[in-house]
Design brief:
Blueprint: E1 10-11, H1 22-28, H2 30-33, H3 45-65, E2 72-75, H4 78-93, E3 98-102, H5 107-118, E4 122-126, H6 136-142, E5 147-151, H7 165-175, E6 178-182, H8 194-197, E7 201-205, E8 216-220, H9 249-287, E9 291-294, E10 305-309, H10 314-320, E11 325-326, H11 342-348, H12 352-355, E12 357-360, H13 368-390
Parallel strand pairs: 1-11, 3-4, 3-5, 5-6, 6-7
Antiparallel strand pairs: 2-8, 7-8, 9-10, 10-12
């Protein structure tokens, strides 16, 4: 990218959101000012042009996950896609059903399940091991003859653990249960083919993959077994009646372009970021004692690092480095209060390691020089904070809202 960010903090929070790729922005711009038609108004040139752009983007999103274009439903966010998959399916049942998910899902999944529990459905929340991974056998043990859906994220947003989707998909096929996954964190760096892993529903984010905010998509399998969903948004019947409202052509174009770019450079970006994060981890561990790495060392997102440092409070570390490095320490999707991450609690229970975890996530445009500067700044600030606590002066910290998205 250009040099306009040279005096801004080093951004290491790419799981929360990513900058829009310059090529993606270029693809979007004409649909704000020139090709601005309503894609539902296909009887005239402006609407026909916009509709064509939407369908081109739909095909690009489908290619990114190995789906058919007609199986992609555009939504206003990945959160909305998760809600449509879970709440929409529950309301289509006509009777109380049973659902299975994990204790480490994104809040947009967990809160959707809590919503359907209030409507009379039952949900089993499967735990994870100390690396944040789900055991497919525990998923199988949780399934009953009333189970209608299993939902397991592809990649954890806080510790980067990749979940065994293929094995869980095989479990769901064996029991004849529908399978949904939140693919938000996977799209930029991990290849997930919905057919190969046995998914019937999958939620996708644009802004986690160098696309714009305000748009997402839901994959809805068109072949049997085909999920039946009830729409949550009512109106003009756009998106096959599953998501009414005028489709935002520029945002949809941006999502399609972002996923097309990601598909083309996924392996290259993943290899570079894997090396970068390992170097960052080595620098921190070599500079400080008592550095604990959270999550798996393998089978993880290549750009995601979670650490707990003995004697160092993450919010104090964030405050000390506010003008130097931007990173996360608690849930960004729940900013009204700072509380210990449900993911770390599921992994470690109520202990210091869960309370003192923070996440570093470089991205496509992060430079090697930025990683070196960030590692040096993090290690120095952590050492100062530890010395201050040891000397009894403490580390002043008022409320700080920050997070892991």
């Amino acid at each position: 990218m250009d040099g306009t960010n040279q005096f801004r903090p080093i951004y290491l929070d790419h799981n929360a959101t990513t900058p829009v790729d310059p090529g993606v922005l270029e693809a979007m711009l004409p649909y704000f000012t020139e090709a601005f038609g309503n894609p539902s108004s296909v009887d005239h040139a402006y609407g026909h042009e916009a509709a064509g752009a939407v369908e081109h983007a739909r095909a690009a999103v489908a290619r990114a996950i190995g789906a058919r274009a007609e199986e992609v439903v555009f939504t206003g966010s990945c959160t909305e896609a998760n809600n449509l998959a879970i709440v929409g399916l529950a309301r289509a049942l006509g009777e109380p059903g049973h659902f299975v998910t994990t204790a480490v899902e994104h809040p947009s999944v967990l809160e959707a399940f809590r919503a359907i529990e209030r409507e009379g459905h039952s949900v089993t929340y499967v735990g994870v091991d100390s690396e944040g991974r789900v055991d497919p056998d525990e998923v199988a043990a949780a399934i009953t003859d009333r189970t209608r859906l299993v939902s397991v994220m592809a990649a954890n947003n806080e510790v980067g653990a990749l979940q065994p989707l293929r094995e869980i998909g095989a479990v769901c096929e064996r029991f004849g249960v529908l399978f949904h996954s939140d693919l938000a964190q996977a799209a930029a760096y991990v290849s997930v083919n919905v057919g190969e892993v046995g998914l019937h529903l999958a939620s996708i984010s644009a802004h986690k993959a160098y696309g714009p905010k305000g748009v997402g998509a839901l994959y809805v399998r068109s072949r049997r077994p085909r999920p039946r969903l009830v729409a949550l948004v009512h109106g003009g019947g756009q998106e096959r009646g599953l998501r009414s409202g005028t489709v935002s052509t520029p945002l949809v174009v941006g999502m399609g372009a972002a996923l097309e770019v990601a598909r083309g450079r996924r392996e290259r970006d993943a290899a570079r970021l894997q090396e970068m994060t390992e170097r960052l981890a080595s620098r921190l561990s070599g500079s400080l004692e008592g550095v604990w790495r959270n999550g798996p060392s393998e089978a993880r997102l290549p750009h995601t690092l979670s650490f707990s440092i003995e004697g160092v409070e993450p919010l104090a570390l964030m405050r000390a480095l506010r003008d130097v490095v931007s990173f996360s320490a608690s849930s960004a999707c729940s900013t009204r209060e700072v509380r210990t991450s449900h993911v770390l609690l599921a992994m470690f229970g109520e202990g210091w390691r869960a309370r003192q975890a923070f996440r570093l996530a470089p991205g496509r445009f992060t430079t090697d020089e930025e990683i070196e500067r960030a590692a040096e700044a993090l290690a120095a600030a952590a050492a100062r904070l530890r010395d201050a606590v040891g000397s009894g002066t403490g580390a002043g910290a008022g409320p700080l809202r920050a997070g892991i998205g």
